[in-house]
Automatic annotation (TrEMBL), chain A:
Residues 649-724 form the Lipoyl-binding domain. It comes from the Eukaryota. The holoenzyme is a dodecamer composed of 6 PCCA/alpha subunits and 6 PCCB/beta subunits. Interacts (via the biotin carboxylation domain) with SIRT4. Interacts with SIRT3 and SIRT5. Keywords: Acetylation, ATP-binding, Biotin, Ligase, Lipid degradation, Lipid metabolism, Magnesium, Manganese, Metal-binding, Mitochondrion, Nucleotide-binding, Phosphoprotein, Transit peptide. This is Propionyl-CoA carboxylase alpha chain, mitochondrial. Its EC number is 6.4.1.3.
TrEMBL record, chain B:
The holoenzyme is a dodecamer composed of 6 PCCA/alpha subunits and 6 PCCB/beta subunits. It catalyses: butanoyl-CoA + hydrogencarbonate + ATP = (2S)-ethylmalonyl-CoA + ADP + phosphate + H(+); propanoyl-CoA + hydrogencarbonate + ATP = (S)-methylmalonyl-CoA + ADP + phosphate + H(+). One of its GO terms (cellular component) is mitochondrion. It comes from Nothobranchius furzeri (Turquoise killifish). It comes from the Eukaryota. Pathway: Metabolic intermediate metabolism; propanoyl-CoA degradation; succinyl-CoA from propanoyl-CoA: step 1/3. One of its GO terms (molecular function) is propionyl-CoA carboxylase activity. Residues 277-516 form the CoA carboxyltransferase C-terminal domain. SUPFAM superfamilies: ClpP/crotonase. Pfam families: Carboxyl_trans. This is Propionyl-CoA carboxylase beta chain, mitochondrial. Residues 29-177, 202-273 form the CoA carboxyltransferase N-terminal domain.
Amino acid sequence: WTFLTGVSVTMHACTHTHTLTRTHAPHTHTHCSYGLFSSSQTFDKILIANRGEIACRVIKTCKKMGIQTVAVHSDVDSNVHVKMADEAVCVGPAPTSKSYLNMDAIMDAIRLTGAQAVHPGYGFLSENKDFAKRLAAVGVTFIGPDTHAIQAMGDKIESKLIAKAAKVNTIPGFDGVVKTAEDAVKIAQQIGYPVMIKASAGGGGKGMRIAWNDEETREGFRFSSQEAASSFGDDRLLIEKYIDNPRHIEIQVLADKHGNVLWLNERECSIQRRNQKVVEEAPSMFLDADTRRVMGEQAVQLAKAVKYSSAGTVEFLVDSKKNFYFLEMNTRLQVEHPVTECITGLDLVEQMIRIAKGYQLQQKQEDIPINGWAIESRVYAEDPFKSFGLPSIGRLSQYQEPLKLSHVRVDSGIEEGSDINIYYDPMISKLVTYGATRAEALARMEDALDNYVIRGVTHNIPLLREIITHPRFVSGDISTNFLPEVYPEGFKGHHLDEDRCRELLASAAALHVTSQLYSHKILGTQSDLMLCYRVSSAPMDQNNWELCVELGQELHDIEISKSGNSYIFMNGLCLSLQVKVDGGQVEVCGDWNLASPLLPLTINGTCRMLQCLSKESSGNIVLQYMGTLFKVRVLSKLTAKLNSYMPEKVSEDTSSILRSPMPGTVVAMSVKPGDTVADGQEICVIEAMKMQNSLTAVKQAKVKSVHCQPGETVGEGDLLVELE
Amino acid sequence: LAVLHVHQSFACLLQTNIQSDCRWYSVSHLSVKERIEKKRKAAQMGGGQKRIDAQHQRGKLTARERVELLLDPESFVETDMFVEHRCSDFGMEQDANKFPGDSVVTGRGRINGRLVYVFSQDFTVFGGSLSGAHAQKICKIMDQALTVGAPVIGLNDSGGARIQEGVESLAGYADIFLVHPSDLPHHGSLCILTHLMLCLQDTSYLFITGPDVVKSVTNEDVTQEELGGAKTHTAVSGVAHRAFENDVEALLYLRDFFNFLPLSNQDPAPIRECQDPSDRLVKSLDTVVPFESTKAYDMLDIIHAIVDEGDFFEIMPTYAKNIVVGFARMNGRTVGIVGNQPKVASGCLDINSSVKGARFVRFCDAFNIPIITFVDVPGFLPGTAQEYGGIIRHGAKLLFAFAEATVPKITIITRKAYGGAYDVMSSKHLRGDMNYAWPTAEVAVMGAKGAVQIIFRGKENQAEAEAEYVEKFANPFPAAVRGFVDDIIEPATTRKRICRDLEVLASKKQVNPWKKHANIPL
């Protein structure tokens, strides 16, 4: 009977794997267990107190388990998660403090819909003990650990003490709350620089600053306490020794209410910018089986020490000698949980729901496998060319996830037409690829990034693609300083070597020629009698073109011809072109569909996925190649010659104007007209997506005029301050 | 020479020519064949190398370079290369002041294989000024173009009439005028008779009287640029239809734009092979209209998402921005698109937007181009400025134009369609062929708040009444139950519906009652 049930539910789970979780990874080894767990009764209705991709993620599992779902949303945010849920309740206006953090409204929603349990996702109320308490008071199950564990681990000072007691390796530092900036300086001097200042209540990199001297400690204290106050409503800070060049490796644990705790292997999350993770993977290349086991066991000791139940994560810093130190424990589902799901075959959300209902874990530690390799890229709506990513906003005018590729999982909560606004996290999706080996997973990630179509907002795919193809990353030589070390001057996009440059030029030229041929495809051209045009047109009989392509400041001469008799040009389908560029010969073949954003080409026999973002009559083409956008201008040789007579446009001097680098709110304006500012002096602070960004002067000058006030909302590129 | 004080630069011009070019004309001892060659060569050089260099230094191309850039390679067939001016006054009869071809290059050629006649004024010869011979050359190709049914493109770069000759009139069949720098009197009046006028930033000027005359008559200080620059005419006066950065950009855009248009008003609108699936669902349209009906969105988002390859050639993009007009293709067919722009002045109709829309609608109707209208209009702009300016008269132009048009007309109401403005925007009442409403459509006399204030003036429970009004009218049903919209459609299916309808409407035949000409309220 059990066997039969298992089989039938397995098939059920299979369908969902494709239609709902949109996972194409072959989890055959796990399907059986999925089926068995699904058969146990849990809740009838769950409310998901979150938004975006994580809300969608939880709803998918609920659907799989046959549980009704309730979504909550703010009045500007009825996105995919609202459509997916069976019911939806609006809990307030756009700002998170009035909606997703509004406990009263969420409690009302629970009462209104009769939800029996609440899944908090991550962020928002997920680690809020008061929320968990209020739920318990009305008999609603909080899908997560109990309040004691949340409280113990949520406070960084207390958690460190508990960890020490549980014989978990900890970082040397000050075990108490820092009151003033001067206190901070004193403590920092005692510990010895560099130090890390962080919010006691914090997480996710918010409210965290590194200081290398007294000055930075004061500044860091100010910023962190402000950020901590606005993000967590708690401005307490602590200071500890900053371990330079460490890796960030975390252990996923799973504990039930009966004292059973498992460790589900590690996740390597070292690639970070501003202490926020960008690329994660599981397992880590760095850990050997022994270290992994010791870390796992310490994580389990800690979980047991606080009587933890549900899914949780114990974060460690690992130095180059494989010494590891406890960092913090996150008492919630992590953003990067999918990589663990990929290699262990467990559905963590399902496990959390079962545990919350009181079921015992059904696996033993020896049942937890490492099957293959999984990598996750966080695709953000942000500009990677500005400090590795400043938020951008906009409407996704075109959006295609690379789901046609196999072994790709995309967790997202948006769709074509969705708005990315200033109120919420700018994450577009989590792109996960899976393979038998790391190399396979990486190759699939490269393909997936190239096939990902995002239009309407600036996104970080250029950076992601550079990271996952960088020799240091590929060889596993990474640390949390990876980005600043690899790009000390800031991220500048893909650097084209000679061959790649030639390929890009050839592709642009070929695209130009194809569109020229296409322009001649007006019906009536080839004596189309049906249409009875009065004047017939001449057919295009050109087979060779002499072009000039401008890339950056350089002009390249290009000769291009249809190759032999091999081309077929029916309905603009397939065309093969020989391109002579900078003395080299490149063959470009392709299915030229100018209506598609994707441009799959075969260049010298190698398949390359390019994207065409725009193509103007003026010859300007924007292509995405190797993840990065390149602006080229393709002109005929004659046009290029005549174009040289055209006067150049004078561009604006940007050193004396300060524009907002991102959309956000002005929280502080440090100057007024008439002030003199020094090079590097702070002019104003913009808060966007809960991050405070200090904007500084790039030269010494007198302030001519100020165009914004604290509290004002500004858009990207808005003029803030003019200098003389 | 002494009497050539028309324009200072002309005088200099003549002097240079005398010095550099006189040898070409003392050639009587040469054979006819050699003389032909010499003349041809001279014609190629226009006003001579120095003038050509000067033109380049101003960031401008010569008449011939422009023609070469505009037309397909090697397709230009020139006419009247040997024509010279016939003026015998003021020393003009001297050989040194005669240039084969005079100050304009004329002929025919092809753009993407399609026939076009073209004239290009040569600023290097007497500043491109218009002589009798010059006008005659243009008229000749215009006559030819009319007989074969092909369009004429004029590339203007002229100081105006050649004063030595007196003014010669030009009857214009010209189709598209690409106005090049310094267009002085007469050309100003001529250009506006054309169907479409494009101009250049920083170098195109167009006015009835120049700044000097303005100063002496009205004592008004104004620069050339302010008075008749590209910005003035594309953003303020609405005289020009689009401005470009420079010659090269303008000509490249013109080549692509030409593909949208039929060769004559007797041809159907062209159809290009289409790679964009006609049944493509446009998911992003389902969320483009914001929840709050007071919030703006960009009508261009809708247009770009719906049309083939997102390729939309906007006409007058910087003038009366509360209405968007331009050309695009649907399943390969050229269509004209008119849309209210909620992002600017809530997309209301005012004097300028009405006139802009009306002119575009008539353009489409004249050239057999189907019209697709996207409606989100809160009404006509109220106020004395508009009333005194004659909004009734000007608004009627748009109404007239839509009513009169016999080309296929498809209308999509995306949100608001209020009051008289609803009627005007290609409604079913104006013989719209297919009129659709999105679920977000509100077809009503006015917004709920205003309506309730009038209906229940002085009464309590205004909020309740408002809610009732919203329930009753702020949705597509009142119009749909009366058949004033043909269907309520899912936004994502809009492209599919339009393409399918255009297929059917391709054979639409509708004839207006006979009249000498319609009497549009000018």
